[in-house]
Amino acid sequence: MALSNIRIVLVHPTHPGNVGATARAMKNMSLRRLYLVTPEKFPSPEATDRAAGADDVLEKAVICPSLEEAIKDCHLVIGTTARSRRIEWPTLDPPAGARRLVEGAGQGPVALLFGQERTGLLNEELDRCHCMVTIPADSEYSSLNLAGAVQILAYEIYRANLTGSASTETAEPLGCAVSQEDMLRFYQHLEEVLQQIGFLDPANPRFLMRRLMRLFNRAGLDDNEMNILRGILTTIQKRQGKS
Ligand code: SAH
Description:
Blueprint: E1 6-11, H1 16-28, E2 33-37, H2 45-51, H3 55-59, E3 62-64, H4 67-71, E4 76-80, E5 91-92, H5 94-105, E6 110-114, H6 123-126, E7 131-133, H7 146-176, H8 180-196, H9 206-219, H10 223-242
Helix pairs in contact: 1-2, 1-7, 5-7, 8-10
Bound molecules: S-adenosyl-L-homocysteine.
S-adenosyl-L-homocysteine binds near residues 81, 82, 117, 120 and 144.
C-alpha cells in the first residue's frame, strides 16, 4: 500500500534506454508509479527493450508537461543529487531518505526526483524539494548512471518498507508471548540460581537483577525461549545438587 504512493519522477530524461532501465529497476523493487517530465524520446523501442519484463510500468507511465504537474498532489518531494550544491539543503543518505519516503507514503503521494543525465536537477527544480538524497560514491567520480541511481534508491525503499512492516507485525506478539506472571516466575528462579552459584550477592541483589530484567524484557521472549531458559536454570540446580 505504502509503495503505491511513492512515485519516481524522471525530469527531462534524454536517453530512452535509461527510461526503460528505470522501469525495470522499479518493478524489481515493487514500485510501479513512473512519471516522466518532458522526456526527449518516448515512447521508444529502445526503452521497451531495456525495460525487459517491465513494459507494463512504461505503458502506465504518466507523461507530464512540467515538474509542477508531476508533483502537484505530493506532500513530500525528495530530490537526488550527486553533489550538494546548496549547503542549506538537508541531505540524507539513501536509507534515511527511503525511510522518510515510506513513512510519508502512509499519509499520501510522495515523489523522488531524478535529474537529466547531463545536467542533473536544476536549481529551480531543487527548489521544489523538501530535502536531498546523495548516494555516497567516489569523490572524484560521484555521478552514477541515471538508472543505476534509481536502482539503488528503489532497493533502499523496498528494504525500508520491509523493515517498517516487520516491526509493526512483530511488535504485538513479542510483547505478549510470555505473560508478566511467567516473567516474574522466571526472574525469581534466575535470582535463586544466581545466589546458589555464588554470582549474586544477597546483600546487594537489586542492581544486578534490575539489569537482567531490563535485558530480558528488551529481548521480548516467546514461550519456547522461556522454556529453554527455565530448562537451563533447572539443569544448573540439578548439577549443583550433585556436586
Ligand atoms: N552531472 C550531473 C549528473 C546527473 S546524473 C550532476 O552532477 O548532478 C543523473 C541523475 O542521476 C542525477 O540528477 C541524480 O538524480 C542521479 N544521480 C547520479 N548520481 C547520484 C548520486 N551519487 N547520488 C544521488 N543521485 C545521483
